[in-house]
Specification:
Number of domains: 1
CATH topology: Rossmann fold
Largest sheet: 8 strands, mixed
Radius of gyration: 17 Å
Number of helices: 9
CATH architecture: 3-Layer(aba) Sandwich
Number of strands: 8
Strand order of the largest sheet: 3-2-1-4-5-6-7-8
CATH class: Alpha Beta
Structural class: alpha/beta
Order of helices and strands: EHEHEHEHEHEHHHEEH
């Protein structure tokens, strides 16, 4: 299969891309940092290519999508965590813009070329989030980086649910806890602790965390499947029932409409 992995140059994304390439698939790493992506691809072996994609800039998203002739599976993996209030090139709050809206636009732009499925990576933080459809980008609320991150991951859950209703084989996966560089932009305890070698691979390695994504890509799963490890943290991924708020059809439809307005992208008819 031809598989695109966003953010496939580090962390869980790199381990996902590595496992898929070693299994004989053709992998395209889509990432912002090209030298890092090229080094990652060289380490993987197999059929691996790289291409520039900045999910914080819809112009870059459109340029990347225009360069793709065909793809079987899109893995929406890239993400940021723990950012202070900042905005993308298009004015979106950064967690919402990079983790969700950039992936929403990319998925819609590639919709007529995706032949098999869309796999999106969520987090257990969605369980504690609330969707503010009238203020997705934090213009009126006091800002919380943790709430912003959680809301972006809840949006991916609802996005997957709505894609499934549109007849797309859409899968959402939770890698669980792992020591990766997703906290590289964070300040405070999270940023400090991410630099400690003795916390490496706690509670599991990035390779183990990637199992959810690999299963989401390779197993015969129905649309709307949610894979997560035990207690959403570690262990073998299994099919899990989403929370009601993560599969509410009315909220999902409203979120889709708002996302299409903000990105000027929609699923091809």
């Amino acid at each position: 299969m031809r598989i695109i992995v966003t953010g496939g140059n580090s962390g869980v994304g790199k381990e996902t891309a590595t496992a898929l390439a070693q299994a004989g698939h053709s992998v395209l790493i889509a990432a912002r940092d090209m030298p890092k992506a090229e080094r990652a691809a060289a380490d993987m072996g197999g059929d691996v290519e790289v291409a520039h994609l900045d999910l914080a800039d819809l112009t870059s998203v459109r340029k990347f999508a225009d360069s793709v002739d065909a793809v079987d599976v899109l893995v929406n993996n890239a993400g940021v965590l723990g950012l202070p209030l900042s905005r993308t090139a298009d004015g979106f709050e950064s967690h919402m813009g990079i983790n969700y809206l950039g992936h929403f636009a990319l998925t819609c732009l590639l919709g007529d070329r995706i032949t098999d499925r869309v796999v999106s990576v969520t987090s257990m933080n969605h369980m504690f989030a609330r969707m503010y459809l009238d203020d997705l980008n934090w213009h009126t609320r006091p800002y919380s980086k943790w709430a912003a991150y959680g809301q972006s991951k809840l949006a991916l859950m609802l996005f997957t649910d709505e894609l499934a209703r549109k007849g797309v084989r859409a899968i959402v996966v939770d890698p669980g806890g792992a020591d990766t560089n997703i906290a590289r932009y964070s300040t405070g305890f999270l940023g400090w602790s991410s630099q400690l070698s003795w916390l490496r691979n706690f509670p599991q390695s990035a390779k183990d965390a990637a199992r959810s994504s690999v299963m989401g890509v390779t197993q015969d799963l129905p649309a709307g499947t949610y894979l997560a490890p035990v207690f959403k943290q570690l262990g073998k991924p299994r099919v899990t029932k989403p929370l009601r708020k993560a599969r509410d059809p009315q909220t999902a439809r409203q979120l889709w409409k708002r996302s299409a307005e903000l990105t000027e992208c929609d699923w091809p008819r």
